[in-house]
């Protein structure tokens, strides 16, 4: 299996070069550089306030860096809008599940395919054959994802009737609906018990086995160490370590700043 950083000439899906982002006098990201190669789980870890979620926001266009650049397949994306970045093939989840409470579970996933649809307002109103075929394809894709994430029995439910673990799986399902090349997961197991965490960890591994590239932000070190191919360790917005999980467990700076003894 190819590991990020092992082969200097390997293909890069995502690369950050000296990315800096400030909020007033606070430097949330400080000259951050790393790259992600295909079919890996790259975990970004660090204490609260290290800049992990800020990094995901910068990648997805919520924030524009004050310095440096972010590249997706070699093209700069730092000045693009979030919807443009999503259309390129980057999608994400959030620390708190962002679901449409007035839609069914199935509809929530179908909405996730919007960046890939071609039907406009007029065709949606008139329902020509092409629009009906596309809607059928969207439904089939959504149903396939619900099956993968074990949510088919609750397809007609609204998200408010789901458990937290099911809401987390639903949000990942919706993020996967647009078939992103790069999936960003922001603390997907926060609030879950041990059994739910293990189950979601297995699903994340299965996504990687199907070819998905994933950037994971997570505080659960048991999960991170168990499923990650590569770790990036942040502290006060700076990268203090990068490498395989077993290497980072022995890195004195990482242990002192975050992992502990």
Structure description:
Helices cover 37% and strands 23% of the residues. It has a 6-stranded mixed sheet with strand order 6-7-8-3-9-10, sandwiched between helices. The chain has a 4-stranded antiparallel sheet with strand order 2-1-4-5, with helices on one face. It folds into 2 domains: 7-89 and 180-261, 3-Layer(aba) Sandwich (Rossmann fold); 103-177, no CATH class. It has 261 residues and is an alpha/beta fold. The protein starts with 13 loop residues before the first strand and ends with a helix. It has 10 helices and 10 strands.
Task: Looking at this protein, list some descriptive labels.
single chain, alpha/beta, Rossmann fold, disordered N terminus
- C-alpha-based Rg, rounded: 19 Å
Q: CATH homologous superfamily of the largest domain, by name? A: P-loop containing nucleotide triphosphate hydrolases
- Form type: globular
Approximately what portion of the residues adopt beta-strand conformation?
Answer: 15-25%
So what's the CATH class of the largest domain? Alpha Beta
Number of strands: 10
Q: Which structural category do the helix and sheet elements fall into?
A: alpha/beta
Number of helices: 10
Write the element-wise H/E pattern from the N-terminal end onward. EEEHEEHEHHHHEHEHEEHH
Which bin fits the share of residues in helices?
25-40%
CATH topology of the largest domain, by name, is Rossmann fold
């Amino acid at each position: 299996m190819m590991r990020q950083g092992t082969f200097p000439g390997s293909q890069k899906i995502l690369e950050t070069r000296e990315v800096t982002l400030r909020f007033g006098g606070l430097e949330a990201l400080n000259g951050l550089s790393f790259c992600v190669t295909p079919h890996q789980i790259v975990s970004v870890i660090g204490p609260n306030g290290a800049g992990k979620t800020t990094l995901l926001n910068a990648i997805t266009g919520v924030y524009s860096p004050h310095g440096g650049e972010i590249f997706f397949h070699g093209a700069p994306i730092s000045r693009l809008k979030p919807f443009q970045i999503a259309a390129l093939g980057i999608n994400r989840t959030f620390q708190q599940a962002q679901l449409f409470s007035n839609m069914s579970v199935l509809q929530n996933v179908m909405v996730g395919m919007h960046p890939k649809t071609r039907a406009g307002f007029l065709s949606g109103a008139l329902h020509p054959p092409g629009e009906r075929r596309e809607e059928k394809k969207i439904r089939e894709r959504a149903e396939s994802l619900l099956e993968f994430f074990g949510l088919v029995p609750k397809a007609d439910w609204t998200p408010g009737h789901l458990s937290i673990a099911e809401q987390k799986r639903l949000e990942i399902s919706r993020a996967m609906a647009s078939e992103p090349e790069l999936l960003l997961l922001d603390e997907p197991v926060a609030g879950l018990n041990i059994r739910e965490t293990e189950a979601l960890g297995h699903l994340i591994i299965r996504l990687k086995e199907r070819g998905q590239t994933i950037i994971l932000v997570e505080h659960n070190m048991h999960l991170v160490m168990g499923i990650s191919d590569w770790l990036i360790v942040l502290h006060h917005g700076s990268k203090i370590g990068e490498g395989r999980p077993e290497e980072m467990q022995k890195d004195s700076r990482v242990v002192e700043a975050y992992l502990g003894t």
